[in-house]
Design goal:
By secondary structure, this protein is mainly alpha-helical. The protein has four helices and three strands. Strands 1-2-3 form a three-stranded parallel sheet, with no helix packed on it. The chain starts with a helix and ends in a 5-residue tail after the last helix.
Length: 110
């Protein structure tokens, strides 16, 4: 299934409000960049991730995530101590995105 920007926003808001969900698979649900965002619609969901404290496993593979999405992920994950496993394969992160994720992995909290 492919979700639009509204669906990712609603999903993020639901996750924010007391969710007990520990595993979420969003592989290939936002595979093309949204023209208005200039990025994958998954980035809207990533904005809410910092406010959730139950999620432990997240699969966001195959979603056209670029370096900007990696930056949003880095920012959100820093405030999410429970998240231990992120699948981000098959995304066009580029060298900048990979550097951002390496910086995230080097943090003591990871």
């Amino acid at each position: 299934n492919v979700f639009d920007t509204e669906a990712f926003t609603v999903l993020g808001q639901c996750l924010k409000h007391g969710s007990l969900l520990t595993k979420l698979g969003l592989a290939s649900t936002g595979p093309t960049p949204d023209p208005a965002l200039g990025s994958s619609p998954v980035v809207l969901f990533l904005e809410y991730l910092a406010e959730n404290h139950s999620l432990q496993h997240l699969d966001i593979s195959q979603n056209s995530l670029d370096w900007g999405s990696a930056l949003m992920l880095e920012s959100s994950v820093q405030h999410h101590p429970q998240l231990r496993h992120i699948v981000i394969s098959s995304n066009p992160l580029g060298a900048s995105g990979i550097r951002i994720l390496m910086r995230l992995l080097a943090m003591p909290s990871c």
